[in-house]
Amino acid sequence: MKTVLITGTSKGIGLETALAFGRAGYKVFATMRNPDRAHHLKQKIADEALAITISAMDVDSEESVKRGIGVVLDEIGSLDILVNNAGIERHGSVEEIKMTDFKAIMETNYFGAIRCIKAVLPEMRKNKNGCIINIASVAGHVCSSPLGAYAASKFALEAVSEALAQEVKPFNIRVAIVEPGIINTQMAEDIAVSGKSIYPNSKRFAGLFAASLKTPTSPTLVADKILEISDSETWKLRHPIGPDAQPFLEWRASMTDEEWVDWNAANDTDWYEAVENTFGLNARKDEHPIKQQL
Question: Is-catalytic flag, 199?
Fold first, then answer.
């Protein structure tokens, strides 16, 4: 039986990924900061008799990561797959986001993944076998306000993943970067209810997310891709996922940097019209009352 450890499994993509691997016959170690919140996952495990073990692990803490992964390795001897999914999001302009929020995002999304990688690599390298899947984002390639701080953490994760892939391939360890677009998760909904800002970008992008979530993409789509990467033994590095991911990346790549800045710096009227003409989405936030009530 293959083994996988997944971080951030209390909800969203992490929860669905744990279930996907469990249903596929893997021995799953589902980690999260607070297992007391894993009511839905626990119920699914019981209902379907899945080989999923829930445990507490805080990726912000080196001690917690060493202890959590150490317990797993002591129990099973080796780990086949690591999925670095744990992540947080804070949105707002560079001026308005607190320094503590900048640091918190990097601590979890970037340093948290590195802590887990360092904890599993010695055994994977010794066994000349392993797969490390890092959950980044389309925001790891494309930066839009008010997601500057979040995008910075995902840009960083993509960079270190690319370097890691070069280092560990001679040891038969695969590295993959998963880049979801707008997925129907609590994180996406939180962006869709962005608070007040002196910069218009926050309100406008919140409207874009709210409009996109009118036709939601389930996190199960991402979970299935992660499982596919694991099972396929592919060496492909980057994997955009979701109906908007690859088109958005290609659209951004068609612009110069200056055109991209100008597009995002346009006045409200021109920006909303451009979004509607380009994506067929009405991003005017006042016209999405359901998301505003969340």
Answer: no
